[in-house]
Amino acid sequence: MSRLTTDALGLLLKNAISTSSMRLGRVVHARIVKTLDSPPPPFLANYLISMYSKLDHPESARIVLRLTPARNVVSWTSLVSGLVQNGHFSSALFDFFEMRREGVFPNDFTFPCAFKASASLRLPVTGKQIHALAVKCGRILDVFVGCSAFDMYCKTRLRDDAQKMFDEIPERNLETWNAYISNSVMDGRPKEAVEAFIEFRKIGGNPNSITFCAFLNACSDGLFLNLGKQLHGLAFRNGFDGDVSVCNGLIDFYGKCKQILRSEIVFAEMGTKNGVSWCSLVAAYVQNHEDEKASLLYLRSRKKIVETSDFMISSTLSACAGMAGLELGRSV
Questions:
Q1: What is the tens place of the pLDDT at every residue in 89-103?
Q2: Fewest beta carbons less than 10 Å away: which of 60, 177, 214, 242?
Q3: For 91, how many CA atoms within 13 A lie in the half-sphere containing its CB?
Q4: 94 in a domain, yes or no?
Q5: 195 and 245: one domain?
Q6: How far apart are the C-alpha atoms of 124 and 75, rounded to whole Å?
Q7: Considering the domain boundaries, does residue 92 fall inside one?
C-alpha cells in the first residue's frame, strides 16, 4: 500500500463498507493520515464518515466530520444515513438539525433518512417540521422524498396527512404504491389496500415481490379469497413462482382463508424453502386445527436443521396443547 492514489484509497474504503470490514477501514484511514496532507480531500473524508457511521462507530464518524473543514451535505448525509441504518434514530435527528444549524440544506438522500428516524420514534411533530423544510427546499416533489414523508405520516397514525401527501406525489413509483398498500394493511384497512392494488394495476403498474406479499396480507380473509387466487396466478405468470417470500405469503394467505390443502401444495412445490416457509405452514396447520400435522412438520424441520423462530415454537406449543402432546411440548 506504499503508492496508493487517492482514488485507490477511496475504492478500498468502499470495499471496507461493502464487506463490513472495520479492520480494513482503519488500515486505510491510517494510510491516509500517514501519506496525505491534513485534512484529506473532501471525497475521502466523506468515505471515512460513511464507513465509520455505517459500521456503527458514530463517534469516530463525528470526529472525522468535525476535522473536515469543507464538510457539505454529502458529509452530513453520510453520517445521518449510517445512524439511521444502525437504529440510532435520536442521534440521526440531532445531527440532521445540527447540519441545518451550520446552514447546510438537506438533499434528496438526507430527507428520507430524517423522515425514517421521525417515523421510527413516532414523532409526528418533528416529521411535520422536516416536511415543511422539504417544501421550503423544493425537495418534496422528489418521489423518494415524498414517499418517505407519506410513510412517516402513516407510521405516526396521521391518516389525513398521509392521504394528502400520497395525492400530491406527482409521479408515483413502485415504492410509493408498495408503501401505500403495506401501510393500509398494517393500519387495519385491507379494503383500501385492495383498492389501491387494483388502481395500481389499472395504470399499468408491474408488481414486485413486496407488492405481492402486501396484497396477500390484505386478502387474508375469506371475503377476498378469489382475489388472492387471481393474484396467485398473476404472480406465477410473472415469474414469481420461485420467489421464496411470495410463496411464503401464499402459504400464509391460504392458511388464513381455511384453504390448508392449497398451503400444502405451495409448500411442496417450492424449490427453495427457508425458516419462514416452515413456520408459515406450521402456523397454517394450527389455524386450521391440524395440530398433529403442525407437530409432525415441526419435527421434520428440526431434522432438516431449519432455524426456528419464537413464533414457530409458540405455534407448535399451541398444537401440542390442542392434542395434549405433553412429551413433545416439553422437548420443544
A1: 999 999 999 999 999
A2: 242
A3: 18
A4: no
A5: yes
A6: 26
A7: no
| Per-residue pLDDT, 1 | 46
Whether 29 contacts 47, CB under 8 Å: no
**Residues with Cβ within 8 Å of residue 56, at least 6 apart in sequence:** 82, 86
Q: Which domain holds residue 47?
A: 1-65+75-86
Q: Which residues contact 38 (CB under 8 A, 6 or more apart)?
A: 67
Contact present, 62 and 77 (Cβ < 8 Å): no
Tell me: do 219 and 284 sit in the same domain: no
Q: Give the separation between CA 17 and CA 54, rounded to whole angstroms.
A: 7
Could you tell me if 185 and 248 lie in one domain?
A: yes
The answer to whether residues 75 and 111 touch, using CB atoms and an 8 Å cutoff, is no
Task: Give the whole-angstrom CA distance, residue 169 versus residue 180.
Answer: 12
Answer whether residue 105 shows pLDDT above 50.
yes
Residues 177 and 262 in one domain: yes
Structural domain contains residue 93: no
In 3D, which of 158, 212, 227, 206 has the Cα closest to residue 182? 212
pLDDT tens track for 148-200: 999 999 999 999 999 999 999 988 999 999 999 999 998 889 999 999 999 99
Residue type, 78: S
Q: Express as a percent the part of the chain with pLDDT over 90.
A: 78
- The DSSP string of 7-31 is HHHHHHHHHHHHTT-HHHHHHHHHH
Is residue 149 domain-shared with residue 179, that is, in the same domain?
A: no
Domain count, the chain: 4
Query: For the chain, what is the radius of gyration of the CA atoms?
Result: 24
